[in-house]
Design a protein that fits this description.
Strand 1 and strand 2 (22-31) form a beta hairpin. Strands 1, 2, 3, 4 and 5 form a five-stranded mixed sheet that branches. The protein is built from four helices and five strands; from the N terminus they run βββαββααα. 14% of the residues are buried. It is 31% helix and 34% strand.
Length: 118
């Protein structure tokens, strides 16, 4: 048996591979920062022993998902909190700057500036 750091078991594993395979009683084996195997629970539990095992019954495991979700204003404000000492005024400053950044970004979109093309 191979040893891995983490074995996620009994979850619905959505592989995101070219075949679009889904294992309803699936498992994912992780060693360090690397996914070393994905497949049916029976196959992976026979092949691997883990330092930590997490029962994911009733959960989806999506090892191929890359979260590309982003809020552009938050990217513009990255690092601002470290420059503000008082957390209450920091929240106010971030909120007002976020609203300003959102306003600038939305007002420069072609859909909102269609009158500029006339």
């Amino acid at each position: 048996m191979e040893t891995v750091d983490l074995l996620l078991i009994h979850g619905a594993v959505v592989t995101m591979d070219a075949a679009g395979r889904v294992f309803l009683d699936g498992a994912v084996a992780v060693r360090g920062n690397e996914i070393v195997a994905v497949g049916p629970f029976d196959d992976l539990s026979a092949r691997f022993t883990a330092r930590e095992t997490v029962d994911c019954q009733g959960c989806a495991i999506i090892p191929g998902l890359i979260n590309a979700h982003a809020h552009v204003p938050m990217s513009l404000l990255r690092g601002l909190v470290a420059d503000i000492s008082n957390s209450t005024s920091g929240c106010s400053a971030i909120c007002s700057r976020s609203r300003a950044a959102s306003s600038i970004l939305s007002s420069s979109s072609p859909a909102r500036n269609s009158h500029a093309l006339r």
